[in-house]
Design goal:
With 74 residues, the protein is an all-alpha fold. The protein is built from 3 helices and no strands. The radius of gyration is 20 Å and the shape is flat. It starts with 12 loop residues before the first helix and ends with a helix.
Length: 74
């Protein structure tokens, strides 16, 4: 019979990744139960306001990928 790990730190890298995926899926199933801190709400409000005043400041997903892949942030 296989010995069970006594800690998550005893898991293999593949097992740790699977655990993270399982935890993420569980959290995603009930997003209303995930706490959102005030600083996160404030940051979201700041970003929304910036977008409203300067809609051209955002990048498309395709443009972002192109910039990241080219190694240049600008």
């Amino acid at each position: 019979m296989a010995t069970l790990p006594t800690s998550v730190f005893d898991l293999s890298p593949a097992e740790k990744l699977q655990l993270v995926e399982d935890l993420w899926d569980d959290l995603a199933a009930t997003p209303g139960a995930v706490p959102v801190h005030d600083w996160q709400k404030e940051e979201l409000a700041r970003r929304r306001a910036r977008l409203a005043t300067n809609p051209g400041s955002v990048l498309s997903w395709e443009e972002l990928k192109r910039r990241v892949r080219s190694g240049h942030a600008r």
